[in-house]
Structure to design on (96 residues):
């Protein structure tokens, strides 16, 4: 059966608008039922996708120290005690 994609679909649009209004009403009812049971940590967390353009990160970055090495497999800086292969400069985690 061929489908004509150019024809307007008013019935589906009307149904989705009605269901959207019903969903909004249900969401409002559910939000009203929450009351004081909101987790205090939840209010401190930022939402994903929030605008963080005005925020600045202040992280102190130290250069690699004399007793550290950079793994050639994972590119992380480790202490010399984590060195597994000095020739290949691979850490114990990557060698396993």
């Amino acid at each position: 059966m061929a489908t004509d994609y150019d024809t307007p679909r008013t019935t589906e649009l009307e149904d989705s608008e009605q269901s959207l209004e019903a969903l909004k009403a249900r969401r409002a009812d559910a939000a009203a039922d929450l009351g004081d049971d909101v987790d205090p940590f939840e209010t401190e967390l930022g939402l994903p996708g929030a605008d963080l353009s005005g925020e600045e990160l202040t992280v102190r970055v130290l250069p690699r120290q004399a007793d550290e090495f950079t793994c050639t497999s994972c590119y992380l800086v480790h202490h010399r005690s984590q060195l597994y292969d000095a020739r290949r400069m691979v850490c114990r985690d990557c060698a396993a």
Observations:
- Residues 46 and 52 are 9 Å apart (CA to CA).
- DSSP finds three helices and four strands in the chain.
- Strands lie at 68-70, 77-79, 83-85, 90-91.
- The longest helix spans residues 10-34.
